[in-house]
Each structure stands twice: as C-alpha cells, then as structure tokens.
Amino acid sequence: MSMREKIEAAAARYPNQRSAIMPALLIAQKEHGYLPGPVLEEVADILGVERIWVYELATFYTLFHTEPVGLFHLQLCDNVSCMLCGSDELLKHLEAMLAISKDETTPDGLFTLSTVECLGACEMAPVMQVGDDYHGNLDVAQVDALLDSLRARAPQAAGVEHASAQRPGE
Predict the structure, then answer these.
(1) 3-state SS of 104-154?
(2) What is the pTM of this model?
(3) Same domain, yes or no, for 53 and 88?
C-alpha cells in the first residue's frame, strides 16, 4: 500500500481532514525517515488542508523530525526529575561515547542524540526514549549496554543513512 493510500485510509476515520494531520505525519515519517518540506507539502495535498497547518504540527511536536536523524534516535529526558537523578551526567557520557554533541548525528548515521523536556515517565528517572521504546532507571553501565545492543541490531553496511535504511525489526 502506498503512502497516499495509507494516509487516505487513516483520514477516512476522521470527520475533519485537519484532525488527520498527526496520523498522516506519522505515516509519512515512517515511510521517509523524516519530514522534509516536499513531504510535508505532499501530506497537505493528500489531506486537502492548508500547508501551514501541516508545517505547524510537524515543527511543534518533538516526535516529528524535519531533518534526518540517525537510525537510532536517543532522546534523553532533561526535566527536573531526570536531572536530579543524573541525566546531565548521562548526557556527558553519551556525548563522549558517541563522539558527538547534543543534537548531532554520528558520522555512520546510527545515532542522533537529543534532549527532550519531558517523557512523562518520572517514576523511571533518568529515562531515555529510543524509537518507541523507553529505557528507565538508567546508569552509565546500562547506557553502555543499550548502545552495544543497538549497534548489534544495526544494518551491517557501514555508513547507511537513516532515510534509506531499513529499521531493525521491520
């Protein structure tokens, strides 16, 4: 099924096409890996809505990416609960282990490191989201083990870019 067909099927569940923008963006992002301008315009055209409405949602929510991200997007919570439980130390450790700074992607395209305001999982602080999965009560050893696990799941081809790579498990 094409992206257009998937978006049209999702939009059919909503009485107002504007309400279908978020599901349509999720479909488009899954298809393309991120949401560059032409894809945002295509989503608006498929739904028959104003392009600005699509741009507003795509740039407001952190789950949408208008720039390419690594195969594994590491989103570390830096809100108060996580900060008090050591997320700032984990961020420094991740930057050192990956040899990148926050909001950068490793040269091999495997990892993008970001911080997010809140993941809504304070009971698991410090917490990090990787794709759709939450990893909580983290310490340096657990982060290292997680990175090793993710590397083991990565495509064997070196330098594979996210937008063209198949995600593990798909």
Answers:
(1) EECCCCCEEEEEECCCCCHHHCCCEEECCEEECCCCHHHHHHHHHHHHHHC
(2) 0.77
(3) no
